[in-house]
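Below is a filled-in request sheet from our internal design queue. Each sheet records the structural input a requester submitted and the sequence that came back. We keep these sheets so that new team members can see what a complete request looks like end to end.

REQUESTER: design group, bay 2
PRIORITY: normal
MODE: inverse folding
CHAIN LENGTH: 259
BACKBONE (tokenized):
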């Protein structure tokens, strides 16, 4: 039987007096790759925020790895999760090697130096996964935007999480590295059983890799499994009647173009 990693029932969230999520329910099993799409301000990042503990004051039921999330076990459950938040234009001005940025994702990163010797192989593996092993000693401040994003992804992967949460991870990456990213995530799901929840805008780019796509705009309007077309009226509910739906091929879950 497939182990349930995320079990969410009727999650609702208000921020600054505004409803950003309204009755969201999701079930994600071990090794499942979920893509979340929706317009700006739809609550995609807020949903990720609930799953990472950044928004603890939600309504509804949330179970992670088969356990109810509470103030007593939240930290322990979150230690099994890797997280990559949206990339912002402002970056730290402190000099820091790429390897040290990745090491910050380890539970032992702030321990004395003599406790850190066993972490090098984990750092090397994470950098290799994102094709950044040649930059391990480079100054993080002077990397390109795409390179920074890959290092940040390595930091999320370095502790080998059971659940990986990604908020627009392909931002600033060129097409080559975007495709490498999606292939890596697909392989991690298939080979390690890691579950992935990824917020993305370009459904056409991810449709060949994900197991399902959730269409979110305050609530989940549709949850399409691989090979399933998303009905055109769902796109209109989410984005408005001014958009057109384009099906690229028979394997596409569903694509849209806003005009």
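RETURNED SEQUENCE:
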């Amino acid at each position: 039987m497939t182990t349930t990693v995320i079990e969410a029932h009727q999650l609702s969230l208000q921020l600054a007096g505004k409803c950003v999520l309204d009755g969201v329910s999701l079930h994600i099993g071990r090794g499942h790759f979920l893509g979340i799409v929706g317009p700006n301000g739809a609550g995609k990042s807020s949903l990720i925020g609930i799953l990472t503990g950044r928004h603890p004051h939600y309504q509804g039921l949330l179970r992670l790895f088969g356990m109810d999330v509470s103030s007593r076990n939240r930290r322990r459950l979150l230690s099994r999760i890797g997280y990559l938040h949206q990339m912002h234009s402002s970056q730290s001005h402190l000099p820091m090697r790429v390897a040290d940025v990745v090491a910050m994702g380890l539970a032992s990163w702030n321990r004395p130096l003599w406790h850190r010797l066993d972490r090098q192989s984990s750092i090397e593996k994470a950098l290799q996964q994102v094709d950044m092993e040649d930059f391990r000693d480079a100054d993080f401040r002077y990397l390109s935007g795409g390179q920074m994003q890959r290092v940040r992804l390595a930091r999320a992967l370095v502790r080998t999480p059971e659940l990986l949460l990604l908020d627009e991870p392909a931002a600033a990456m060129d097409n080559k590295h975007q495709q490498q990213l999606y292939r890596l995530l697909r392989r991690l799901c298939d080979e390690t059983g890691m579950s992935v929840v990824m917020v993305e805008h370009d459904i056409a780019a991810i449709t060949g890799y994900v197991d399902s796509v959730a269409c979110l705009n305050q609530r989940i309007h549709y949850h399409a499994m691989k090979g399933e077309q998303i009905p055109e009226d769902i796109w209109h509910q989410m984005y408005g009647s001014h958009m057109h739906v384009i099906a690229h091929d028979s394997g596409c879950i569903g694509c849209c173009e806003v005009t």
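SHEET NOTES:
- The chain has eight helices and twelve strands.
- The longest helix spans residues 175-192.
FILED BY: M.R.
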